[in-house]
Each structure stands twice: as C-alpha cells, then as structure tokens.
Design brief:
Layout: H1 2-34, H2 40-55, H3 67-81, H4 92-99, H5 104-120, E1 137-138, E2 149-150, H6 158-161, H7 164-167, H8 169-173, H9 177-180, H10 185-195, H11 205-224
Antiparallel strand pairs: 1-2
Helix pairs in contact: 1-2, 1-3, 2-3, 5-10
Length: 225
C-alpha cells in the first residue's frame, strides 16, 4: 500500500509541476503586457506575491524528493529571474544573488526547521500527533548540544521516510543550541539565515542538506572544545 501511495504522490507531483509551469507562463505574459518597465525590485515584488506562494503551497506536508520534480519546480524560478534582460545571461545562482532571492530548495529547508521550532516551542496545540507526522521530541538536558533533539522514526516505508517528522531530523539536530533556543520566532529566522548564509542561493537540495549538517556538527565541535 505504501508503494502504491508513494507512486500516486509522485504522479500527482508531475501534474502539479505541469500546472505550475502553465500558471507561470500565463502570469509571465500578463506581467509583460502590463508593465512596460520592469526593474529588480518590481520583479521580486511581483514574483514573491503572485507566483512563489503557489510554488510553496503545502511544502511541509509533502516536499518534492525526485530530482526531476525539484528541477522542474525550480525551473519556474529560473524563468522568472530571466525576465530582466540585464540578468538573462547570468548563471541561475548569480541571478538569485543579484535579486536577493533565495532558491526554492533553500526555502523548503528553512521552512522545515521553522515549523520544527514552532512545534518545539509549543506554538501548536497538538495533543495527539496526527498520523505520526512528528517524530518524538526528546529532552537531552545536560548534553553538549541543544535540548530539543528529534528522534527519527524507524520505518521500512519510503514514503514515511520523506514525511516532515523524518526528513527534518538531521538538519534540525545539527543546529547549534543558541539558534534552537532563540527567544522568538523572528529571532530564530534571523539566526537561521545568518547561520546558513552560504546556502541561500544554492539550487541543489542534496548539497544544502549535506553541507548544512556537516557545518552544524563542525560548529558544535568548535564550541565544545
């Protein structure tokens, strides 16, 4: 059943990404017909208010995992950042940096840890974890790392391993204690963006996950010794 469900979700993702591309092409034509002049600030405002919210809808519930889906989704932002002729010939990551526009891959990872922070801080009134979505939060007081470690759920299902409560475990557990213990959500967001500054414009989610986890443990080691 899990394999059938996993396949169904993958097929749905294909349909969603196709509709996202169609929607962007429609929005792109409207923007080009409506605005005779378009600068960086206007492009970012239009994209982040009209297009990106659609691309990020439901990310925490189901984040794309196949590279074909990830690239197709990021491709919408590829096209959007080429709407300015002055940026069109630049590499994608350079265009993102010019526009101060993080990659969608980075924003998904950032969104996951923000949701985990909310959960650990009790911002959600969850008496019973729905569908075992969240892994058990363990208190590790007295250890050298932070006190909100997440226990990864043991399972033999591919689809379960990609649920929020499992996919967030490694990057969350690798965060330094001062970030996890932030006094407010806005403070946490600011500290995360500073900590992960090298990854804001990286397109490859595998690079982000691997290097961010390594960075977290390096920071922990340096602070410990």
């Amino acid at each position: 059943m899990d394999g059938q469900t996993d396949g169904w979700m993958d097929r749905q993702m294909v349909g969603w990404t196709d509709r996202w591309m169609d929607g962007f092409e429609w929005m792109d034509s409207i923007i080009r017909r409506t605005f005779v002049y378009l600068d960086k600030k206007m492009l970012v405002q239009l994209y982040t208010s009209l297009v990106r919210p659609i691309l990020e809808y439901g990310n925490v519930i189901w984040s794309p995992h196949l590279q074909s889906h990830i690239k197709q989704l990021e491709g919408v932002q590829h096209h959007a950042t080429k709407m300015l002729s002055s940026l069109a010939d630049m590499p994608y990551e350079q265009r993102l940096e010019e526009l101060k526009l993080p990659s969608l891959a980075y924003r998904r990872m950032r969104g996951d840890v923000i949701e985990m922070f909310k959960y650990c801080q009790g911002e959600y009134s969850v008496h019973k974890k729905p569908f075992n979505l969240y892994s058990e939060v363990q208190s590790h007081s007295g250890t050298r790392d932070h006190g909100f470690k997440v226990k990864k759920e043991k399972n033999n299902s591919a689809i379960r391993s990609r649920f929020f409560g499992n996919r967030v475990v490694n990057i969350w557990n690798a965060l330094p204690a001062d970030i996890v213990n932030a006094t407010s959500l806005n403070s946490f967001k600011n500290m995360i963006d500073k900590h992960w500054k090298p990854y804001h414009y990286i397109e490859d989610i595998r690079t982000i996950h691997t290097e961010s986890v390594v960075l977290g443990f390096v920071v922990l080691f340096v602070r410990t010794f």
